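Fold tokens
===========
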Amino acid sequence: MADKTSFGFESVSFQEKTKRVKGVFESVANRYDLMNDLMSGGLHRCWKKTFVSRIPTFKGAICLDVAGGTGDIATRLYHKLSPQGGGKVMVYDLTPSMLEVGRDRAFDQGFFSDLSWICGSAESIPFPDNFFDFYTISFGLRNVTHLEKALSEAFRVLKPGGRFFCLEFSKIKDPVLKRFYDLYAFKIIPKMGFFVAKDEASYRYLSESIEQFPDQSLLEGFLKDAGFSQVSHENLTAGIVAIHYGSKVISQ
């Protein structure tokens, strides 16, 4: 139905999805980073390191990290920009409790004031057109309610020549690996969520949301429809995750 969207394997209203996604991350905020380490066996750190290495930052760059959560990617961007002479990194997330965890950690590590922490939706970003040099989103795009709106906003707030970078779970092509991955995702991860985060349902949703998300080619199509040029992707770990690229090229 046109007024419905997916929340994992459930069909819900658009308003309900936004509310429930926010509830998921409010529930898991305090254990979010620990669960990432446990679920991926630490691989998420390698994926994020590779992701940030692909971003061609420069002195004075203004970066928006959408669905930035506890600031993992933003912190890496900050440390990459620092030797280049600095820049501006803004952490933007729907869930206040995720931002609170990130702010506390940044304060403890001594660079709280070097990042901006802003609460809001990826579908309505409170910045003017042509403002950012880089837009990043890591493991968050599949949680937005209206994918097309989020990508349109990404295009809008980027400067001409600005770059879009997305790190997201994707689709494994190898059928044998996919079978083992599905067993892990749908049987083991929810149980880990139950024992570690005391929330099995949220981690079941996170696994289901991966299954429901567009594959690499379909997401490239969405990026092109939003106006992006030079669209491509790079698979990591056999396609368990992929980095998606796009540029805001304004024709003369």
Observations:
- The first strand starts at residue 4 and ends at 7.
